[in-house]
Amino acid sequence: MNKLEFLTRLRNNLERGGLPSDDINDALSYYEEVFLDAGFGKEEETAAAMGSPEDVAVNILRESGIHVGGAPVMPPQRMDGPQGQQQQGPMMGGYVPPKKKASGGSIALGIVLGILTFPIWFPIVCVVVSLLFALIVVLISLVIAFFAAAIGLLIGGIVALTEFPAVGIMFLGAGLILTGLVILICKPAFSAVIPAIGRGIKRFCGWVVGLFKKGGKENA
Amino acid sequence: MGFSINAGLLDAMVLSIVQNNDTYGYEITQYLRKAVDISESTLYPVLRRLQKGEMLETYDKEFMGRNRRYYRITPKGNDSLEEYREEWRSHKKKIDSILLNEGAEYNEQT
């Protein structure tokens, strides 16, 4: 018996026993983990060591206070084929189909939703990212503008110094003031503001991705 | 091992293993196998019972691209384990007094 067969039979028997679906999922994830931890090549061995899934199910049910009378349920035919779906209704009272199918469906649903709402969220994401990017560009250009003005004034001052010393000194002074300002502005701008905006963009993208992952799960 | 092990003793041993180290189902079974003949399917109801009794709690940890369920002992589990240990000591003494001939204090190294 391989892992899939063991887990399927276990699930069927637990469902027949009327175990709440949370408990069923808990048990199945435990047994799935056992198979994974035992190693891929050892499925048959592991299954054999644990005994029949019917007995395992009876033990779990007994521990949950459900006493199973008579022989445990043998593997039913309803698992494969389209007719399984029809049988399931009256027999299980509309019980949830195996977990794998449900989660697969919810992921697909999430993807479909993501695609359908694409015209809405894509422009919003673009706008927010571009705005943040524009902010960085504005900051950098401001710094460059100040820097250029400072250099211009300093050069102009030196040139003017020879003909109109007073004007030249004034230009030089203004140039030095601007240089100081640039240095004062540059430092915090480069060391804090720009990385912060970059982080903001990154976090926003992460948040958008997370939103879709979560959305998918909630629909399960 | 010719002696059967009861549910209480199994609970106590699992608590003791988890108290040493947070660990996962498969590893707990491997530890227990050093002393008793037990399979993964014997362990599951035990873990479930201890969890429901709030003696163990679980958390998931990523391992090779999947989640592995780790068990951690709670304060209540610690208290309970102490009681079990106390009980075991007196139980063992009584059994020893008969089986190994009265009053003989053997210091078993385990």
From the structure above, extract its key features:
heterodimer; A: 220 residues; mainly alpha; B: 110 residues; alpha+beta; Arc Repressor Mutant, subunit A; 4 helices; 55% helix; 16% strand
Walk me through this protein's architecture.
The complex is a heterodimer of chains A (220) and B (110). Chain A is mainly α. Chain A has eight helices and no strands. Chain A has helices spanning 3-16, 21-38, 43-50, 53-63, 83-92, 99-116, 118-163, 165-218. In chain A, helix 1 packs across helix 4 and helix 7 (118-163) runs antiparallel to helix 8 (165-218). Chain B has 110 residues and is α+β, with helices and mostly antiparallel strands. Chain B has one domain (7-99): Winged helix-like DNA-binding domain superfamily/Winged helix DNA-binding domain (Arc Repressor Mutant, subunit A, Orthogonal Bundle), CATH 1.10.10.10. Chain B is elongated. Chain B is built from four helices and three strands. Chain B: InterPro entries: Metal_resp_DNA-bind_regulator, Tscrpt_reg_PadR_N, WH-like_DNA-bd_sf, WH_DNA-bd_sf. Chain B: This is PadR family transcriptional regulator PadR. Chain B: Residues 14-83 form the Transcription regulator PadR N-terminal domain.
